[in-house]
Amino acid sequence: MCASKWINKNLFDNYVEEKSKEASEKNNLIRRSDFVWQSPQAGTSEKAKVYEGRFIPDQKGKFTKKYMYHMWKSGDKWIFYLCPKTHGMEKFCPVCSIVSQLYTGTADDKATAYKMKRKERHVGNFYVVDDPRDKEQDDETKKNSGKVKLYEFPSKLESKLKNEIMDKKEGLGFAIFDPGSEGHNIIIKIKSTKPDKNGNTYPDYADSIFSRKPSALAETDKEIKDIMSATRSIDEYIKSLEMSTEDTQKMLKNEMLFEMVETEWRRNFGNGEMKAEKPKRAEVEKDDDDVPEDKGVDVSTECEAEGDYTDEDLMAELRKMQ
Questions:
Q1: Distance CA 320, CA 322 (A)
Q2: How far apart are CA 100 and CA 259, in angstroms?
Q3: Out of 65, 125, 133, 189, which residue is the most buried by the measure of CB atoms under 10 Å away?
Q4: What percent of the chain clears pLDDT 90, i.e. is strictly above it?
Q5: Average pLDDT, the chain
Q6: Which residues contact 45 (CB under 8 A, 6 or more apart)?
Q7: Domain residue limits at 160
Q8: Confidence of residue 128 (pLDDT cuts 50, 70, 90)
Q9: Considering the domain boundaries, does residue 167 fall inside one?
């Protein structure tokens, strides 16, 4: 290439280097869909959509774990906040405090509180045996069957898992996590509820069951070891969802909510300007999922309500965040 009196070659070389770096960073991005199983979709109220898989422990021996979160829409964006009570109910959560205060206010305040209230989810490593959506997917790399994914599942399904563990007489116990020939798959059957008074339907997991017939996830021990080595740390995943103290304060101020908890904040974090090191997070490329609709729901549920909840489809939006 000939030299040009109009172009500074050193600056151009720096520009090329920047572009090369951008391309490299993009190639190193981890798409959330690469390791988190897209929430199974429901069938109709008459016919369930059926998925099959096996819960397996991560490499540190952790099986599943519950985490709590707040998620609400602010303008055109969604805010996700991992509730500190995930790590103990004695932990101070500024959003829980705000929600409690809003529930004592006007009808509009109560409606806002309902949208911001604490919810819960469970997460574990899951070997996908059969995902019926794969039949509609031409791209082999985007199919889920035969892969280990992190599965974020609702309390409705966790109760099925808990029953097998706690029922000493009839339950399958640790066999629901065993990848070998004594292990048992879970058959996830999801129907849609009949429309409520607002026309909304929700996933119904009532028919989901653990197979009573044991089976191995692979034919050889080596293949099973490969499957187990593909698991991800549950603790590290939950850690990656956390927001730093500094960013939490910034978010609350942007939402015009900080004054509601300023006294408690100072009691827990000092002068209110405390900075904390932001947890390391994997770089995650956003997926193109649909944003869930706001639902006109009864706001009578209290802040402390946990377990089943009507806005579970908000979790789909998690795949667009980080």
A1: 7
A2: 14
A3: 125
A4: 67
A5: 83
A6: 191, 192, 193, 194, 201, 204
A7: 30-63+123-242+279-320
A8: very high
A9: yes
Element (H, E) at 246: helix 245-254
Q: Tell me if 90 is assigned to some domain.
A: no
187 close to 209: Cβ distance less than 8 angstroms: yes
What is the distance of C-alpha 161 from the center of its chain?
18
Q: In which element (H, E) is residue 9 found?
A: helix 9-27
CB atoms within 10 A of CB 107: 8
The pairing of strands 284-285 and 30-31 is parallel
Q: How far apart are CA 267 and CA 263, in angstroms?
A: 6
The vertex-214 CA angle with 210 and 217, nearest 5°, equals 95
234: enclosing H helix or E strand:
helix 234-240
Distance (Å, whole) CA 116 – CA 264: 19
Helix axis angle, 245-254 to 258-269, nearest 10°: 160
- Domain for residue 262, yes or no? no
As for how many domains the chain has, the answer is 1
* Long-range contacts formed by 220-227: CB under 8 A, 24+ apart: 224/179, 224/180, 227/56, 227/127, 227/148, 227/179
Residue 144 lies in a domain: yes
Q: What is the CATH number of the domain that holds 199?
A: 3.90.198
